[in-house]
């Protein structure tokens, strides 16, 4: 069989066929530059398209600048647009080349065709080259007086571009005064809207430096201007209407009559087809009537129909935006929307984000009269093939139950979920049952009867397993197999990969179970405490150690601490404070409503971080992927009293020491049960064999092994070098080895008036600063250091708050074992500076 013939393929028009392609374009453009032959414009178009396509995919065609400018001498608008696009792209990075464009752009600004005049003026202002500012003033002044509205509209925006290039030139040319005159007298509404937008931006920026600018900014909220814009609002485009309505929302009427006049003028805007206009109008209505309670409630009734109409019509994105604002209103006045709950039922073809928000709406509008219908609908979603929606539906049912609506029926529904034998349904239901038992302990008998039939092996999600463990510990007296289930979990300690959730709950549950059923739980508690003390996760390690010492001190006191009499939880904490909610309401019709947080939380540098990579640094995991064989800690972190340290024979200088090693294969084997079993009786905790070295850690003096030789002192390389890119990459990859919070002395606070002094001091101690940022009272520094004889490095994030006099340190290291020694060096350097 003959091989297939090679197909001849023409090269793509967007890819150069060879290195000489740009040179060929240059020669072809030069040939056409002065030609007046018929069809020459068509040839230019083809060449211009090639140039633009190359430019778009990143090929440098700046060498064609002169030829492109020469070929722009034409009346073809399409050629003009492509040439302006080319010029605007290369002018900023090549200011010298931009000088070549001034003559032909200024010439085009005087063209007979208003379209070309406008395009040329827009391109001239878009060059953004400071050395060309003097060439902008004349064309802009002429454009603001042009007879064509399109040219005037472009010129107004050009003034704003000029202001951002050179504010002094803009103010000296008195352009704001011209714009103010245009805003009040121009017949074209788009020109008026552009003037309003430009003046707002210019005067807001100038207000901090000029009292006159501040007065001009306040004049935009004067009654004559507001009424002038409102009377013409129907003539404006949707964008311009939103701009005007945003301005009106800031206006403070003098009396109630004026409030009603404004609302009457805007009444028909609530029926507008554009959702943005409707939301902007609603914001005006809500803000004007905040101080009039009765009228404010009537406004809620009035705006309900337009909002529900927007939800049911339009794109999913619009529905989501409107639902977000509806959710905010429902949280403030749930009773007003309780009869409209069916509008928030999910449709089969809606995207997940819309369904999720509707479920939140159903939770918010639930009350005594509609709970049965809402819960019935939610239970249907729980059997949905869409697993995320099923999860959200179960959570919604639980939230309604916690609101004390029809609890009896809801508990029955939740217990039925546990019998569905679907892993995700069981997991979500267990979490909810735990919260319900905290609030309604009287339902414990019914719930425990069902929960007791669930095998812990079938529950894999950390939160669900933690909820099951909590119930096993809290109600172990009512669950016959509770100690044995907890024992099996303790024996599989190393198989659990969520220490911050499951292991912490397991330790507490075993303690509770021990106080209720001591003989059956003794072995499991010993295994868990031994494994917990040797755990590499700091919280688990500390809690196990705390429980161990508590039992060693006094079992009765331990029971009072771990398992005291509890009262039912009346109200669960709201994740958002009322102040935050009010702030979001003030920012109605903005992204704050959709993000459910005030704007300063996602715009201010204090919250975003001053560095390019600070957002990524804040999201890094703090879980260290290190061996669990050793846990090193400072004496003060391990809660040992001075007397205990002395009894244990620890050195007085607070050097680090090793926690007991934990070998699960040994501690869990049947042959070693007698030696590893921790015996708890008469308020004293001790071991049958010294093979499990917890007593050594507690300072009982039972150690049979000699103390390890002291590590050599750590020395740093004074000439260490690290580029920012490598620092950022290593910061992402390395886990946090140590976190500290240190007090800052008054001298240290005073010294931070010049942060550079701290940077120079640390460099003198071979600790180098790679980035700084922030402003008073929060200062942030990123340091790095390197071992003198090795390539391993230490990375430090140091955040100093001068108002609270606290310094927070996060240390990451290539060599985890040297972290403590480096921490001592770092603190010593800060102390020498007078910081601590």
TrEMBL record:
Biological process, per Gene Ontology: intracellular protein transport; vesicle-mediated transport
SUPFAM superfamilies according to UniProt: ARM repeat
Region Disordered: start-end pairs: 1-41
Domain of life where this protein originates: Eukaryota
One Pfam family of this chain: Adaptin_N
Feature: compositional bias, Low complexity: 1-17
Gene Ontology terms for molecular function: clathrin binding
InterPro entries attached to this UniProt entry: AP_beta, AP_complex_bsu_1_2_4, ARM-like, ARM-type_fold, B-adaptin_app_sub_C, Clathrin/coatomer_adapt-like_N, TBP_dom_sf
Family to which this protein belongs: Belongs to the adaptor complexes large subunit family.
Subunit structure and binding partners: Adaptor protein complexes are heterotetramers composed of two large adaptins (beta-type subunit and alpha-type or delta-type or epsilon-type or gamma-type subunit), a medium adaptin (mu-type subunit) and a small adaptin (sigma-type subunit).
Role noted for this protein: Subunit of clathrin-associated adaptor protein complex that plays a role in protein sorting in the late-Golgi/trans-Golgi network (TGN) and/or endosomes. The AP complexes mediate both the recruitment of clathrin to membranes and the recognition of sorting signals within the cytosolic tails of transmembrane cargo molecules.
Protein name (Swiss-Prot/TrEMBL): Beta-adaptin-like protein
């Amino acid at each position: 069989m003959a091989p297939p013939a090679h197909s001849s393929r023409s090269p793509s028009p967007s890819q150069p066929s060879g290195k000489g392609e740009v040179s060929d374009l240059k020669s072809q453009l030069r040939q056409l530059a002065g030609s007046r032959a018929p069809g020459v414009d068509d040839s230019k178009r083809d060449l211009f398209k090639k140039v633009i396509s190359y430019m778009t995919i990143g090929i440098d065609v700046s060498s064609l600048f002169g030829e492109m400018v020469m070929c722009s001498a034409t009346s073809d608008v399409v050629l003009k647009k492509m040439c302006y696009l080319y010029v605007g792209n290369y002018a900023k990075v090549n200011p010298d080349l931009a000088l070549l464009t001034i003559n032909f752009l200024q010439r085009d600004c005087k063209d007979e065709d208003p379209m070309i005049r406008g395009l040329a003026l827009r391109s001239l202002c878009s060059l953004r080259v400071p050395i060309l500012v003097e060439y902008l003033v004349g064309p802009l002044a002429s454009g603001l007086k042009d007879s064509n509205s399109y040219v005037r509209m472009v010129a107004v925006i050009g003034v704003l571009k000029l202001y951002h290039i050179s504010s002094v030139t803009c103010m000296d040319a008195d352009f704001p005064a011209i714009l103010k005159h245009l805003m009040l007298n121009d017949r074209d509404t788009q020109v008026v809207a552009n003037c309003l937008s430009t003046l707002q931006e210019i005067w807001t920026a100038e207000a901090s430096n000029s009292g006159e600018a501040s007065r001009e900014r306040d004049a935009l909220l004067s009654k004559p201007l507001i009424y002038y814009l409102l009377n013409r609002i129907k003539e404006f485009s949707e964008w311009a209407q939103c701009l005007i309505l945003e301005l009106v929302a800031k206006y403070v009427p003098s009396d109630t009559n004026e409030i009603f006049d404004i609302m009457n003028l805007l009444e028909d805007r609530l029926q507008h087809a554009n959702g943005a206009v409707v939301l902007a109008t609603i914001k005006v209505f809500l803000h004007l009537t905040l101080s009039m309670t009765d009228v404010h409630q009537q406004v809620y009734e009035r705006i309900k129909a337009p909002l529900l109409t927007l939800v049911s019509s339009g794109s999913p994105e619009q529905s989501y935006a409107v639902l977000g604002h509806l959710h905010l209103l429902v949280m403030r006045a749930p009773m007003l929307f309780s009869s409209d709950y069916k509008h928030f039922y999910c449709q089969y073809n809606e995207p997940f984000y819309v369904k999720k928000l509707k479920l939140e709406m159903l939770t918010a509008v639930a009350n005594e009269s509609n709970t049965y219908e809402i819960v019935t609908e939610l239970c249907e979603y729980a059997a949905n093939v869409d697993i995320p929606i099923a999860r959200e539906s179960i959570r919604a049912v639980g939230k309604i139950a916690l609101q004390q609506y029809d609890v009896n029926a809801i508990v029955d529904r939740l217990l039925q979920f546990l019998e569905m034998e679907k892993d995700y349904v069981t997991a979500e239901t267990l979490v909810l049952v735990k919260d319900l038992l905290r609030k309604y302990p009287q339902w414990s008998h019914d719930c425990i009867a069902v929960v007791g039939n669930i095998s812990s092996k079938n529950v894999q999600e950390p939160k669900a397993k933690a909820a099951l463990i909590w119930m096993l510990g809290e109600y172990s007296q009512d669950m016959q197999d509770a100690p044995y289930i907890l024992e099996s979990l303790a024996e599989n300690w190393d198989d659990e990969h969520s220490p911050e959730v499951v292991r912490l709950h397991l330790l507490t549950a075993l303690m509770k179970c021990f106080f209720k059923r001591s003989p059956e739980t003794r072995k499991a508690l010993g295994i868990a405490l031994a494994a917990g003390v040797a755990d590499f996760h700091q919280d688990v390690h500390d809690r196990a150690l705390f429980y161990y010492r508590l039992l060693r001190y006094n079992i009765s006191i331990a029971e009072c601490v771990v398992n005291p009499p509890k009262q039912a939880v009346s109200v669960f904490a709201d994740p958002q404070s009322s102040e935050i909610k009010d702030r979001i309401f003030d920012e109605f019709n903005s992204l704050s409503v959709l993000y459910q947080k005030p704007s300063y939380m996602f715009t201010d540098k204090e919250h975003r971080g001053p560095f390019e990579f600070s957002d990524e640094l804040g999201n890094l995991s703090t879980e260290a992927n290190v061996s669990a064989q050793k846990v090193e800690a400072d004496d003060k972190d391990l809660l040992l009293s001075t007397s205990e340290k002395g009894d244990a024979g620890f050195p007085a200088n607070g050097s680090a020491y090793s926690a007991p090693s934990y070998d699960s294969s040994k501690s869990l084997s049947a042959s070693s049960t007698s030696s590893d079993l921790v015996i708890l009786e008469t308020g004293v905790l001790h071991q049958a064999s010294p093979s499990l070295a917890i007593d050594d850690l507690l300072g009982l003096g039972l150690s049979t092994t000699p103390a390890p030789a002291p590590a050599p002192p750590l020395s740093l390389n004074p000439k260490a070098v690290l580029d920012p890119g490598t620092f950022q990459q290593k910061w992402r990859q390395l886990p946090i080895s140590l976190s500290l919070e240190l007090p800052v002395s008054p001298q240290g606070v005073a010294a931070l008036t010049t942060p550079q002094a701290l940077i120079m001091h640390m460099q003198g101690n071979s600790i180098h600063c790679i980035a700084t940022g922030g402003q008073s009272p929060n200062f942030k520094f990123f340091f790095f250091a390197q071992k003198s004889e090795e390539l391993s490095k230490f990375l430090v994030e140091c955040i100093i708050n001068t108002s609270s006099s606290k310094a927070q340190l996060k240390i990451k290291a290539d060599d985890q074992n040297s972290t403590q020694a480096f921490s001592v060096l770092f603190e010593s350097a800060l102390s020498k500076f007078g910081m601590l």
